[in-house]
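Problem statement: downstream parser choked on a complex file, so we are re-checking the raw output for the pyridoxal-5'-phosphate run. The parser issue turned out to be on our end (a line-ending mismatch), but while we're here, posting the original submission so the record is complete.
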Amino acid sequence: MRLPLEDLHGSLADPLLDAMTFLNEATTRYPDAVSFAPGRPYEGFFEPEDVPAHLDRFLAHLADRGLDRDAVRTALFQYGPTKGVIADLVARTLANDEGLAVAPESLVLTVGAQEGMLLTLRALCAGPDDVLLVSSPCYVGVTGAARLLDLTTRPVPEGPDGGPDPEAVREAARAVRAEGRRPRALYVVPDFANPSGTSMPVGARTRLLAVAAEEGVLVIEDNPYGFFARTPGLRPTLKALDRDGRVVYLGSFAKTCFPGARLGYVVADQEVAGPGGRRGLLADELARLKSMTTVNTPALSQAVIGGMLLAHDCRLRAANAAATAHYAAGMDTLLRELDRHFPASERRRLGVSWNRPDGGFFAVLTVPFTADETAMERCAREYGVLWTPMAPFYPAGGGERRLRLSISSLTQAQIIDGVAKLAAFIGS
Ligand SMILES: Cc1ncc(COP(=O)(O)O)c(C=O)c1O
């Protein structure tokens, strides 16, 4: 039996869906190369023995809450509630770390933020006339999820300060309306965005929310990196600034705990009014969709992350102090080494420039050549350093001469070595 690709779902012919796999494969093909490619956390903070300790702590917590052995057995081994079992701990963490008052009922625990994205897009976009606005460059996880759901996306360029320019959001929303379609929601990563590394200033956040309200657009805030801010509280989340329930908030434990747990969540506190007076929260509607996708998020993952939250009194910023310092030092080293290898005169001569994120995992380098997969392969093969081409992050084209550098999985020594190799490649 041979299945023609064109008879399968259209997304399968879209190169977007290969972007992640290609990078993972390249990393395995060049195991000795310094890899600025993956946005994975640094493994030096992970100890295998910690996993059973976290699990034990969570089981003790269940017992403390009065669950007997049979109830604990059911909680751990059985199918569980679709919305999850650690919403109370996640709500406490959001209150402690982000100043967000979230009712546990408005939370859905998901299989990574990725599932949260898929459920949110499915629930919010009612039909083919609904358009998702996305900042450009944009995380491929959301453009990919939209592609799977046959949703139309409309890119909104990032402004010079980071994040989508609020006025550009207004223009895009109006343009969509002028076509007779509905600009349903805007997807945005306001803190240390993937791939650009930039963070929206507070003023731009309030302006963005005002524009969204004026244009009747919902906001999907994805915040996997905000916990790593050097100065907590400097830039409140959109959700914290949201006064009219416009923001659906996606969280992930992939970077603050560990990605192997595949645990994320959605804060969906919007009320949904149904016919016949049926009312509930958007979280309940997401759970209904989830019951037909992953049924429920694995209890074991929730138990381990729950134990981890308990170990740190539901304070992930404090728990991640060493990781935050590690990533901040990595970013400082990256920017310092770029400065060292490309002094101002060299930058001008070669046509090289980069942005200066004040934290997070990513920075973007503009180079004088097409930074595509072929260039990346040559750089890995001949110079021993890997990076990520930016073009796949631009839904409507662009970014051909840009590459993303991620410091997250590297040591300082590797970053120093990697920038030297990259500089040699760029100068070649
Ligand atoms: C912006 C953004 N959102 C979501 C995710 C994925 O989160 P999760 O691993 O929880 O699915 C990532 C991972 O790299 C990301 O960069």
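For whoever reads this later: The chain has two domains: 5-45+320-426, 53-316.
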